[in-house]
Amino acid sequence: MIGGCLDALAEMAPSAAAIVIDNNSSDGTLEEVRVRTRVNVIANGDNKGFAAAVNQGVEACSAEYLLMLNPDANLLTALDDLVEASHKYGLASGKLLDKTGNPQKGFTIRRFPTPLTFWFELAGLNRLRPSNPVNRRYRYLDRDLALAGPVEQPAGAFLMFRRDVWQRLGGLDEEFYPVWFEDVDFCRRATDAGYRIEYVPGVAAEHLGGHSVSQIPEGCRLRYWCVSLISYASKHYGSSAYRGICLAVVLTSVPRTVARMIRERSLTPVSDCIRIIRFAVRRLMSLRRSGENPKLVS
Asked: What is the C-alpha separation between 92 and 194, in angstroms, rounded?
């Protein structure tokens, strides 16, 4: 996947310096990258997680403007307008398109999740009825993606920011391991610090989507997502809302597990469910707001 990404970057942004952080992959990524010139590769001996890898990349260069770009995103336009918006506001993001050239509505930009958003997500209501008011607000389904302007949470797959913003915020929070909500947290902290995040639809990339995540077993994906969700809630919600999120994780884990058992005809989901519930209950009872190593449930 990364070959097409690097080729498109070299074509559309020839002056950009590409830095690839490889989190101990085993799919030929390093071989694909190393045949290309003008690409700096950092090969980690283990999976340090998405946030840590991004921080590594920023520290490995001196550029003023930095673009987080997923390996399954192929740049379709130049980056000049994104740089200009980042210079003016601090952070900026372009438009992500699917294989057919249509905007990835509901993913390209989102609003910050509220506790009610997480309840709806955990209960599967946003998937069962995408048009419900909570989901419409969360996924910006009420917004025309052809119009530029400020947004709350662009996708981390295609996000530019100034170095001084990253430095002031202390980089991405590596507690979100290995993935999920680190980009949301970064945007939330940037907004709280007074920066504006600008959506620039004139800059676009084709996003194939979910390539790396799809390689994670379903049970692990669910555990990682729930743990990162709780970590986000611990940082950005009050005590009552935070406890409500922990409770929601516990209450919705059982029906999700039953559905997986029926679908997979296996008892394996039970162990995943127990791990998730144990973690959520521990955080609920202790009200521990941050700092617990998320690798404990990995």
From this structure: 14
Q: Name which of 277, 213, 281, 230 is nearest 115 in CA terms.
A: 230
Alpha-carbon span 243 to 255, nearest angstrom: 20
> What is the per-residue pLDDT across 213-261, written as a single tens digit (0 to 9) for each?
667 777 889 999 999 999 999 999 999 999 999 999 999 999 999 999 9
Digit-coded pLDDT (tens) for 77-122 = 999 999 999 999 999 999 999 999 999 999 999 999 999 999 999 9
CA terminus-to-terminus distance, the chain: 26
Q: CA-to-CA distance for 246 and 286, rounded, in angstroms?
A: 11
Q: CA-based Rg of the chain, rounded to a whole angstrom?
A: 19
Q: Would you say how long the chain is, in residues?
A: 298
| Distance between CA atoms of residues 238 and 28, nearest Å | 44
How far from the centroid of its chain's Cα atoms is residue 117's Cα?
16
Widest pairwise Cα distance in the chain: 54
CA-to-CA dists, residue 182 to 4, 153, 230, angstroms:
25, 11, 12
Q: Is 196 exposed, middle or buried (0-12, 13-18, 19+ CB in 10 A)?
A: middle
Q: In the predicted model, what is the mean pLDDT of the chain?
A: 93
| DSSP state letter for 17 | P
The pLDDT of residue 296 is above 50: no
Provide the Cα torsion 33, 35, 36, 40; round to 10°. Answer: 50
